[in-house]
């Protein structure tokens, strides 16, 4: 991971290295012994990225049980520590996961807040994705044979599914803005990520797992992947420019014009407080 030029110290400190990523994989593997539906880290990273882009900060009391629990928001007062989500073996394990999560969240936010000139730039946002098809194709023949018939996700597909999982679960915060230009901006960016959730059916030409590995990803897929990453930049910028969503004030039920005025005058509403 790379630090951004404007905040090198904080970004570098927040980056997850290989040891931390291995720790996360092991931690998620352990959670899976108690809950088989716990997702892979690639899905989690997509989910995390969507939360960074969401219009308001989503507290851990909301997102943690949605990602790794029963989906029910934790009942915790502001400023109080989170109760244990049963998927974790203890509070220490849960706190460690949250600490690693915060490191990655800070890194993603720092990268997205500095517009990169290209996706190859050192400070560009880099999703945590793996070319599973390339990884499996690089295995010895006997090991590949053991996985025959299994559905293997396309490059970036699991990450994009994690992103859209967060969007769908906080749909109110992702509601289309009234401004037409902003609405088009939102739709275009989301469409680019949705496209990444689809299967790569193009001709394999490139291996993203190893430079000299067998072809596993199409050129078209790489283009879709790049468009999705630029879409993430657009979403982060869009919601930052619009600010928090304004709550709609809902007025109470109004009396009919021929009903008694609620002020108690004894007159009809149209002749009293409802007079135009």
What's the quick description here?
48% of the residues lie in helices and 0% in strands.
Largest sheet data = none
Compute the gyration radius: what is it?
Answer: 24 Å
User: Which runs of at least 5 residues are low in confidence (pLDDT < 50)?
Assistant: 1-13, 247-252
- How many strand elements? 0
**Percent in helix:** 40-55%
- What is the mean pLDDT? 86
N→C terminal distance: 65 Å
Shape: globular
Quaternary structure of the protein: single chain
Strand content: under 5%
Kindly name the structural category: mainly alpha
SSE series? HHHHHHHHHH
Protein name: Zinc chelation protein SecC
Describe this structure in words.
The longest helix is centred in the last third of the chain and has 24 residues. Helix content is 48%, strand content 0%. The N terminus is likely disordered. It has 276 residues and is mostly helical. The chain is built from ten helices and no strands. The protein is globular. The N and C termini lie far apart (65 Å). Helix 1 packs antiparallel against helix 5.
């Amino acid at each position: 991971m790379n630090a951004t030029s404007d905040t090198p110290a904080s970004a570098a400190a927040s980056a997850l290295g290989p040891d931390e990523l291995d720790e996360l994989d092991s931690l998620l593997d352990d959670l899976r012994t108690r809950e088989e539906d716990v997702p892979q880290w690639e899905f989690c990273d997509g989910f995390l990225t969507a939360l960074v882009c969401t219009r308001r900060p989503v507290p851990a009391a909301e997102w943690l049980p949605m990602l790794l629990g029963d989906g029910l928001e934790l009942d915790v007062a502001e400023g109080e520590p989170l109760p244990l989500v049963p998927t974790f073996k203890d509070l220490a394990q849960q706190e460690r996961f949250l600490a690693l999560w915060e490191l990655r969240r800070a890194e993603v936010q720092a990268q997205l807040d500095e517009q990169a000139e290209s996706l190859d730039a050192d400070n560009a946002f880099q999703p945590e994705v793996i070319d599973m098809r390339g990884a499996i194709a690089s295995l010895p023949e006997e090991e590949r044979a053991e996985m025959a018939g299994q559905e293997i996700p396309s490059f970036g597909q699991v990450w994009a599914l994690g992103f859209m999982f967060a969007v769908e679960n906080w749909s109110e915060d992702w509601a289309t803005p009234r401004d037409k230009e902003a609405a088009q901006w939102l739709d275009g960016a989301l469409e680019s990520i949705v496209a990444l959730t689809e299967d790569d059916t193009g001709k394999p030409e490139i291996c993203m797992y190893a430079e000299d590995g067998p072809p596993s990803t199409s050129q078209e897929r790489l283009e879709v992947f790049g468009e999705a990453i630029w879409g993430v930049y657009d979403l982060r910028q869009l919601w930052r420019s619009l600010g928090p969503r304004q709550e709609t004030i809902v007025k109470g039920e109004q009396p009919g014009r021929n009903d008694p005025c609620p002020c108690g005058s004894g007159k009809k509403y149209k002749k009293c407080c409802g007079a135009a």
